[in-house]
């Protein structure tokens, strides 16, 4: 336990350096966990060190190979590192960059032309794709504008439909209220009519003094008057003739008596109807 604690403290000191080590609860579980973390960290550090050493060794080998190849290249073209000017070195650097960019295997002209043609074809294809995308974007923008206009129109139509439905609902509610009022009024009038009919039936009122009977009698009188018009016109030529005084006097007296009887009967019926109708109205109102 003591040995593990010392090992953990040394590792924490190396990790945090000059900073204070955070306090933690020292027990068997925390010490075991930290020991496992120390072992894992040391193993990882060893692997990193080995990888760094390997990279350094390969870098040294690449540097050595590069210097050897450079010496061979300079000897092949009859040049030495000190004989090349700065401009020549810059051109060679540019040539190297172009070669790396075009990914050609050598610096021969036959290698550059296909690579440049390939890049040209890729550029043309990219421009073609760009134009196609621009057309697609333009079409999408037009469709989007049309969709926005349609959406706005649909929203306006929906708002109008909602308002129309509200108006129709208000009208329907008003019709229902009116219908209820008419039904109640109809029931009330039917009840009053039945009460009036029952009262008339209980009083055994003569049917000849009813309003309908008087209307029928008036229509008959109007019809008789119309029928008498032709006869009156036929008698007009004989109106200037002097009738027998005694016979005319008799006819006049008979006509007076008939007229007085008709007037008396009519006045009696009108009086009976006038006396019965106010009582019926007052009872119905009560």
From TrEMBL:
Coiled-coil regions, chain positions: 116-175
Keywords tagged on the record: Cell cycle, Cell division, Coiled coil, Cytoplasm, Cytoskeleton, Microtubule, Mitosis
Short name of any one Pfam family annotated for the protein: HAUS1
Superkingdom of origin organism: Eukaryota
Subcellular location: Cytoplasm, Cytoskeleton, Spindle
Cellular component annotations (GO), alphabetically ordered: cytosol; HAUS complex; microtubule; spindle
Gene Ontology BP term (one): cell division
Family the entry assigns: Belongs to the HAUS1 family.
Protein name: HAUS augmin-like complex subunit 1
């Amino acid at each position: 336990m003591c040995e593990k604690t010392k090992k953990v403290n040394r590792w924490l000191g190396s990790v945090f350096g000059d900073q204070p080590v955070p306090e933690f609860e020292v027990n068997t579980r925390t010490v075991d966990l930290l020991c496992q973390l120390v072992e894992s960290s040391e193993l990882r550090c060893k692997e990193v060190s080995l990888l760094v050493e390997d990279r350094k060794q390969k870098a040294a080998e690449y540097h050595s190979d590069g210097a050897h190849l450079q010496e061979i290249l300079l000897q092949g073209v009859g040049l030495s590192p000190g004989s090349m000017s700065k401009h020549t070195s810059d051109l060679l650097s540019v040539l190297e960059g172009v070669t790396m960019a075009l990914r050609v295997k050598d610096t021969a002209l036959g290698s550059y032309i296909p690579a440049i043609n390939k890049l040209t074809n890729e550029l043309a294809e990219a421009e073609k794709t760009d134009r196609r995308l621009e057309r697609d974007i333009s079409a999408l923008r037009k469709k989007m504008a049309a969709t926005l206009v349609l959406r706005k129109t649909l929203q306006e139509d929906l708002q109008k439909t909602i308002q129309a439905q509200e108006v129709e609902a208000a009208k329907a509610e008003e019709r229902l209220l009116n219908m209820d009022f008419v039904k109640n009024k109809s029931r009330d009038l039917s009840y009053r009519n039945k009460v009036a009919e029952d009262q008339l039936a209980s009083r055994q009122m003569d049917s000849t003094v009813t309003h309908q009977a008087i209307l029928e009698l008036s229509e008959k009188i109007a019809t008789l008057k119309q029928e008498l018009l032709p006869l009156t016109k036929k008698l007009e030529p004989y109106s200037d003739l002097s009738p027998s005084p005694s016979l005319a006097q008799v006819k006049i007296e008979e006509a007076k008596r008939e007229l007085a009887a008709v007037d008396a009967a009519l006045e009696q019926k009108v009086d009976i109807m006038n006396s019965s109708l106010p009582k019926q109205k007052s009872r119905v109102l009560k």
